[in-house]
Design goal:
The chain is α+β, with helices and mostly antiparallel strands. Helix content is 20%, strand content 32%. It is rod-shaped, with a radius of gyration of 32 Å. The model has no long low-confidence stretch (mean pLDDT 78).
Length: 238
């Protein structure tokens, strides 16, 4: 075989190798294209922002479909997974719902019970109280007799918040206003985990107190309120 023939054979082999390379590249592109338009799966995207520790409902999400290869392994594909779950952190609108964004709602401890009351958003540390917060619950009572002074009491110290609901506009009549006019206020239902006695105190305050307010307790603060500081009257400052 002369040199010209050898060059021809080499060029032929190179052509074959190039053809094989092109064929493999085409197969790879075809596989990628098939995966792009292959089987689609269902996922869920947030319709709006969700606050930390807020209970999750189906209406907060919209269904989307996408190729399986682009779906994160932690993506939630069945909204049944939301039952009894809360957001572990702030969830942003448009985010894809994933398992690590949600946790199970804390269970009640033995001897505790849930009790929910409506709290005026303007006086209830609006926006700062979340599930897991600890608060002191204050109630102000009017005097039973005309000569009696109003009194403010700490009815529960260190109450555990387990759920904060949605703001709800409510119409209420101003104290002392003899007209039929009512003003609209925003209130929020807040659920506590309390023992029987404290639950009774909260229920009583909601029924008979003129105002119920919450004071947020600093995380880790275990200081108790002395008995002589749990009741306040204006006369006591004189």
């Amino acid at each position: 075989m002369n040199s010209r023939q050898r060059r021809g054979v080499i060029l032929l082999l190179l052509s074959v190798l190039c053809a094989v390379g092109v064929f493999v590249g085409v197969l790879s592109v075809v596989r990628d294209a098939r995966s792009m338009v292959g089987p689609e799966v269902t996922a869920y995207r947030l319709r709006g922002d969700v606050r930390p520790y807020e209970p999750l409902t189906d209406g907060q999400f919209e269904k989307v479909t996408m190729p399986r290869r682009w779906l994160p392994p932690t993506a939630v594909t069945d909204l049944a997974a939301l039952r009894g779950k809360i957001a572990v952190t702030r969830l942003r609108k448009g985010s894809l719902l994933q398992d690590d964004m949600i946790v199970a709602r804390p269970a009640l401890k033995p001897g505790r019970q849930e009790i929910a009351i409506m709290i005026d958003a303007a006086t209830g540390v609006a926006g700062k109280i979340t599930a897991g917060s600890r608060v002191n619950i204050y109630a102000t009572f009017e005097g039973k007799r005309p000569e009696d002074k109003p009194v403010s009491k700490v009815i529960v110290a260190g109450a555990e918040v387990i759920e904060v609901g949605e703001l709800t506009p409510l119409k209420r009549k101003d104290p002392g206003d003899t007209s039929a006019s009512r003003r609209t206020t925003e209130q929020v239902p807040i659920t506590f985990a309390l023992g029987t006695k404290d639950a009774q105190r909260v229920a009583y305050a909601e029924s008979f107190a003129s105002h119920v307010r919450l004071a947020l307790v600093a995380p880790g603060d275990e200081e108790t309120i002395p008995a002589d500081e749990r009741t306040y009257t204006l006369d006591g400052d004189k």
